[in-house]
Structure formats: structure tokens, C-alpha cells
Amino acid sequence: MIARAAKGALVDAGLTPQDVDGLMIGPQVGETPQHAPAAVSEYLGLQPDFADIVDLGGASGPGMLWRAAAAISAGMCSTVLCVLGNARDLERVPRSPNRNPIREFDVPYGASGANQAYAMVAQAHMAEFGTTSEQLAQVPVKQRRNAMLNPNAVFHGKEITVDDVLKSPMVMSPLHLLEVVMPCGGGAAVVVTSPERAADLRRKPVYLLGAGEKVTHRALSQAPGLTTSPLSQAVGRAYRMASVSASDLDLLSIYDCYSIVVAETLEDAGVCAKGEAGPWLEEADFSISSTLPINPHGGQLSTGQADLAGGMGHLVEAVLQLRGDAEGRQIQDPELALVTGNGATLSEEVALVLGSSRA
Question: Which of 9, 55, 131, 148 would you label with 293, given CA atoms 20 to 30 Å apart?
């Protein structure tokens, strides 16, 4: 139903799917409660630079319209497809999602779940670039050292070594237990307002200087590649909007559900060259005293992942650091931070450049 409605709207406008770089949908799309825009994008053959769900009941349609206009005005995209649909004839349209790519091309071969998907990404990176388990183990080890400064971290006070990581249970080859995100309970929130309004508030504001977003797939079998993610496009847009480059950054607050995600993020963000994350991780210092601190709060691998709030935690940490309020783990005078978010398996990517000033 969604595909038919979308096709009709595009034909009426004289556009093709290739002209669409933004997507807004409703919440009822079947296959999964999360990653819904990616599932619809994949089905329609889109790779949007902006995607969102609007859940306002009967006001969802009009609500989509002004949000699409706001996204276009902000420079996130140029043409947004807003579509809603639902099937009521249950005898003709089965409820089970047996015809989506994950069910058809992944699950029959045992490819199901995040552990398996990210293990495949890690295997691909190792095969193509020679990355080793010892190199990937540097991620949880160095982030755990940062977590030692964060009393709110699940693993506060529990330092680990590379040997500890490699001896921890193999969850899905080549990923060990200590390379896999730690689920926990918790929440995180931020408030966004105008610079003019922020000037009257009690806290020093942090400024959004650049943003980028890209969605390319939902099922891993449909990914354009396994060793480069859509984050490379999202980061590029964020850098251009902020008029900065990777060499200008003072802080990385980057999504880290698995060690391999940090490795690919470093490459796709231009911190190191493609294929060189392994050696880079061996030499890098993640600490607050380094030239480029990474996840000073410990990241989700050590602080914990409270479902979607885990990703929000990276944004909160960057704000605290840029305001100078990261008590006990404060970086000296940071001005620019990169924040990244990752949905599904390197499928839905967001990059933000935040600054301590508007310049």
C-alpha cells in the first residue's frame, strides 16, 4: 500500500525515486518496531539523506508537511516523500512479514540478529585489510580506562586488558563478549532552542554547527558494502555544513555498540585512511589528555547501552565536554566535537558537529 501511494505521488509530481532524498512515514510498517524508515527505504529503493517517523495519529499527515519543509529549509534534503498506509484486508494481506529482504535473503541462512551482522562486518574488514582481533580489542580496553573516570559507568572501576578481551567468550566470531555492547537501564535527554533564547538561560549553550544523515539499507544482504558505511556521506555533509574537517576536531563522541563500529567510524569520518583503523587503534590514545579523546565517558561498551538512550548518551557527553561540565573527566578547552549515531547494521547513520561557539 505504501509503495502504491508513493508511486502515485511521484508520478503526479513528474519525479522518479532517484529524485527523493527525504522520507517521512508513519509508525505501522510491520517487520520491526525499530529501523522502520530503513525498511521502507529499502522496499522502495530509496537512499535518503533524511528520514523520520511521524506519530501524531490523525494529525500525522499535516505534521509531516511542516517537518519536511523544515528539513528542506535546514539543508538536510531537497525532496521529501511523505507517505502513510495500512492494510486492513487480513485475508489478502498476511500479517507475517515474509516478503521483506531480511526474511527472504538473510534469515534462511542463519543470518539473524545484531551479533551475527556485526561479526560479518568484522570478518569482511579483517579479510580486506588484515585487521586483527588484537587491534579491535584496543577499543574496549581504552574506553574502559575512560570509564574509570565516570562513576555512572556500568564498568566503573573494572579495568581490562587486551588479553582479557581475547579470553572472554566468543559471541560470534571474531567478536568476543567484551567487544559487545553492555545492555542496561537508563535515560538521556537534551533541550534544543534558538541561539537567542539560549543566551538568557542558566547554562552555557553548545551550538549545532553541522549535520548529516544517510540511510542505505535495512537488511545486511542489501548493504552497498560491508567495509564502508553510509556514515561517510553523513559525516561529509556535516563537515561541509560546519566548514570543518576531521583535523579540526577536539573530541570524538562516536557510536560504539561493537568494536568494529568504532574502527569503521574512524575511517569513514576521515580520522584515519580506509583500511588503516587497525594500526591506528594500536597507537591511539583515547584518554582526555590525548590530542583526540574518544568517548571520554567510556562509550556504550563500558558505560552501558540503555536501548536508544545509549546513543543519546554520546550527544550528552559532547555537550558536557564543550560546556566544561564533565566533572572528573574534563578535556582541556575543547571547541569542536563529532557525534555519530548508528541504526541497524551500519544502515541509518547520523553525524553532528557541535561547537562551543557559533563561529
Answer: 131
